[in-house]
Amino acid sequence: MKTRIQELRKKHKLSQEELASAVGVTRQTITSLECEKYTASLVLAYKISKYFGLPIEEVFDFSEVEEL
Predict the structure, then answer these.
(1) Is residue 12 part of a domain?
(2) For residue 4, with 0-12 CB atoms within 10 Å meaning exposed, 13-18 middle and 19 or more buried, which class applies?
(3) Exposure pattern of 25-34 as b/e (b: 16+ CB <10 Å)?
(4) Which of 7, 49, 50, 53 is least surrounded by CB atoms within 10 angstroms?
């Protein structure tokens, strides 16, 4: 799943460590999300989106998610 996390983090001049601390995860988790090696849980996606003051859909791209 593609995300705008890196773009938003840099726009707000945050390190991976600062964002990770703010949303309660490790820096490695933020790195994995930015490299698309990990998909955020709904709770984590909500925390990150809320941190940036954006709807989840503006931070995470769900266009490639298969419909049930």
Answers:
(1) yes
(2) middle
(3) beeebbeebb
(4) 53
Structural domain harbouring 30? 5-59
Using one digit for the tens of pLDDT, what is the confidence trace for 7-34?
999 999 999 999 999 999 999 999 999 9
Q: Count how many domains the chain has.
A: 1
Round to whole Å and give the CA distance between 11 and 14: 8
Tokens standing for residue 41: 């849980």
d(CA 58, CA 48): 11
pTM of the model: 0.89
Contact 16, 31 (CB under 8 A): yes
The CATH number of residue 10's host domain is 1.10.260.40
